Amino acid sequence: MNNHEAAPSTTGPSRPASLTPLVPHPPATSARKTRRFGSWYVAEQYLRAMKGYLDIVIAYSVGNPLIYLFAMGVGLASLVDANSGTASFDGASYLQFVAPALLASAAMMTASGEFTYGVMSGFKWWKTYYGPLATPLTPQQICQGHALAVAIRILGQSIVYLVIVLLFGAATSGWAVLSILTASLAGLAFGLPLMAYSASVRDDKGQFALVERFIVMPLFLFSGTLFPLSTLPWFLQWIGWISPVWHATEIGRVLSYGYAEPLWLSVVHVLYLLALTGGGLLLARRVYARRLEG
Amino acid sequence: MIQNPSRPAVIVADQLTKRYGDFTAVDSISFEVPAGESFGLLGPNGAGKSTTMRMIGGVSQRSGGTLSIMGLDPEQQGPEVRAHLGVVPQEDNLDQELKVRDNLIIYGRYFGLPMSYLRPKADELLEFAQLTEKSTARVDDLSGGMKRRLTIARSLINDPRVLLLDEPTTGLDPQARHILWDRLFRLKERGVTLILTTHYMDEAEQLCDRLIVVDQGRIMAEGSPAALIREYSTREVLELRFGADRNAGAADAVAGIGERIEVLPDRLLIYAHDGEAALDAVTARGLTPLTSLVRRSSLEDVFLRLTGRSLIE
Known about the structure:
The structure holds 2 protein chains of 2 kinds. By secondary structure, chain A is mainly alpha-helical. Chain A has helices spanning about 5, 25-50, 55-85, 95-115, 115-125, 140-165, 180-200, 205-220, 235-240, 245-255, 265-290. The longest helix of chain A is centred in the first third of the chain and has 31 residues, at about 55-85. In chain B, about 35% of the residues lie in helices and about 25% in strands. Chain B is built from 11 helices and 13 strands. In chain B, helix 3 (about 100-110) packs across helix 4 (about 115-130).
């Protein structure tokens, strides 16, 4: 049986015996390092895996803003600006008005994909969460690491988006750079509570398609994105107030063309986004721990 | 169990219990594993072996009893316990999105190991697992045996002194199993403590110094494979086949031959010290079985004796 297996291998890049054997750091060091940096290690895995479909990530990050900015900011804008002038939007052009909204919406849409199908893949389809579970990583870190990787992707995508917005001449203030952060925050404020929900789903029976259709789309359409929230009938305006996209859009407008808004309201926007992000993360951590440690 | 001070216990389980609602998967089992031993949990599917492994690995919380791994409580110090272990799960959960070699490196990152260690270590392990040529292949393109070897290589990335193997060769063809056994045997020679579950008696006999036979969450017997066979079975077994409908009837006809008779759906087992002599006694009674076979007793016979059921059903 397998004589060739027993013979010492003489081929291949084997290390000379004179070299000192490879000795890893002691287990206690592993545990200490992983306790501190575990979430980053998990994020690293996601970013490495993303390299495998980097072309798609880039095509999406560049193509998406082009499509929306041309359609809304150029096409639709020519109609809107011809009709109402710049009066309706605090002196801004329609392109300037929609750009911050499109930026925040894009962050939400990327988050909605990553935090539904991505989570399902980790628990069920590819079971990527279960391999690392046998290492010093904790379920909470597996959750946070995934969230961190998505946050990095959204941040990168928002940077590309803002560059294109600037090329379109759709932002007039240097403060617009900060809207990269507020838009990314909107992605997480929407995405992390969704992550907690997705982690509780055992079988995808179309729930995620419903989330796309009846949560993501309405939030995109009714968050003061394409028209000011105040033009909506009062019974629909609450959608804006609960929508991370509206809060991020309003700050984005303040930052990119000096839209006038009381300071306290801007503070509320940021606090609301932070609260949803923090609350969502805490909840997701708990759901992950319960499911992975059963 | 006597604790040998020169071989300190790596694992001490005392009345370890796991319940899921009303169902008790692991029912108050106690055992101890000294460093360097190959320790097996033998039992049929659903006996509670995997659940026990998951508790040892610190990924499942116990419902009762105490458990100590390298003197640490996996519930309180999960990351510290897991840093000591290598784990080969029952189902390969390799990262399908990463190449073969990257699977090893990324897994090593989870132990906080630096790239300067991981790059040469990954190459060393690929060679150990005979996967050097597959280094840049996709996991999807590997055969079942290769995936299993990669999973074992992955579990060794932190150079663990304790390796947990849950059904390491289930689903593999005989050749792939032998390659795996050979690799595991080398680890054992290097002093790695192996804890493995299996429902294959030949695997348990090949690899285990000592084992516990588990059924329905309880320990039925404990000892070395040879001692268990001595204690619960005879030296030899005579297997007789009379044809599907006639086995049960023939059992009465051979009564009194050997020490014990088991009637299985497809054959009769006569437990005797001397199988050939038993066969002579059978033919002397004018019985003509379709086939007859004399073999050594195995752990399968031990299990049959203890539970009245076969290991693989």
